[in-house]
TrEMBL record:
NCBIfam families: dcm (TIGR00675). The gene is dcm. GO terms for molecular function: DNA (cytosine-5-)-methyltransferase activity; DNA binding. PANTHER family: CYTOSINE-SPECIFIC METHYLTRANSFERASE, DNA (CYTOSINE-5)-METHYLTRANSFERASE 1. Belongs to the class I-like SAM-binding methyltransferase superfamily. C5-methyltransferase family. Its EC number is 2.1.1.37. One of its GO terms (biological process) is methylation. The active site is at C71. This is Cytosine-specific methyltransferase.
Length: 312
């Protein structure tokens, strides 16, 4: 089995993808204790190192290095500031790349990285990864095109060691127009309880929440699952929203509305029945955070499966 070192591993979305693609994860790392709790409750066999990646001096050698460094600096949800320190964690990934010397690597990040004010950071990532000896390609992929019940566009940066003389080719869509039927909200969560008490964030819908349409029907794909429960999309059991003006929407009835629960969010990310352990760090916010930060396993699996067979 080809081996993997995983960085910024969170609760294990990307790693569930590489496991499904037939890889063995030798080591995972994240700074967030509850992400480790969830990861280990679902994959107890992994050596999960908890702590700041910059404090890790040695890594095992492996065939593949994966990492989805944090994205707050680039994402729509976060403050978009190109100079934030959090935006340079890719340098830690590049440091690990030079130590591990894998045959290939996969990075995932928010698609906002292609915006012009971050272009220099994307270019710098290409530069440091190429200098480390890799042929690098990037592409934006939408999880819904790979059987995930969600509109989620993310950039993937993939490198293959230059000694193989190969360029990476990204997977093409398997689901959508003229292809397999997309996975809908109903397919993903249609059999779950309608009002799972204690599992959904039940605060008011603030004006900012109602500045756009947050609801999709059962037979559509979900809007993007985010890490902040305040901004979690609406469950289709909620009344529809109608547009009242620029950035202003309102419910069409007074029936009760609710956001997706953290468990539904996990299903909409394509995790299946993810175990959320009740450790001392467990809180509803934490459960939403680790799930919303994750990479949909099926999307990561599709990218990992598209790597050429360079493992022997
Ligand atoms: C986009 S999420 C990764 C999600 C993960 N790949 C998954 O699929 O579940 C980014 C992760 O980086 C972690 N992180 C942020 N700063 C870190 C640091 N200095 N060292 C290690 N992990 C860090 C965050 O806690 C977060 O879980």
């Amino acid at each position: 089995m080809p081996t993997v070192v995983s960085l910024f591993s969170g609760c294990g979305g990307s790693d569930a993808g590489v496991l499904r693609a037939g890889f063995d994860v030798l080591m995972a790392n994240d700074i967030l204790p509850y992400a480790r709790d969830v990861y280990l409750a679902n994959h107890p066999e992994t050596n999960y190192v908890l702590g700041d990646v910059s404090a890790i001096e040695s890594f095992p050698s492996a065939d593949l290095l994966v990492g989805c460094y944090p994205c707050q600096g680039f994402s729509q949800g976060g403050v978009r500031k190109a100079d934030r320190k959090i935006n340079t964690l890719y340098l830690e990934f590049a440091r690990a790349l030079r130590i591990v010397k894998p045959k290939a690597f996969i990075v995932e990040n928010v698609s906002g990285m292609v915006r012009s004010n971050f272009e220099h950071l994307l270019k710098d990532q290409f530069k440091v990864f190429e200098e480390a000896g890799y042929r690098v390609k990037s592409q934006i992929l939408n999880a819904s095109h790979f059987g995930v019940a969600q509109d989620r566009k993310r950039i993937f940066i993939v490198g293959i060691h230059e000694k193989f003389g190969l360029d990476f080719t990204f997977p093409t869509a398997t689901h959508g127009d003229g292809l397999k039927k997309v996975t809908t909200i109903r397919d993903a969560i249609g059999t779950l309880p309608e009002w799972p008490v204690g599992e959904f964030y039940d605060a008011d819908f603030h004006w900012y929440y109602l500045s756009r349409n947050r609801r999709q029907d059962w037979d559509q794909i979900s809007k993007t699952i985010v890490a902040n429960p305040r901004h979690m999309p609406l469950h289709p059991i909620s009344p529809t929203l109608e547009k009242m003006g620029p950035d202003k929407w309102q419910f069409t009835s007074n029936d009760r509305a609710r956001r997706f629960s953290f468990r539904e969010a996990a299903y909409l990310q394509g995790f299946g029945d993810l175990v959320f352990p009740e450790t001392e760090r467990a809180s509803m916010n934490m459960k939403y955070t680790v799930v919303g930060n994750a990479v949909p396993p099926r999307l990561f699996e599709a990218v990992a499966r598209s790597l050429p067979n360079i493992w022997d």
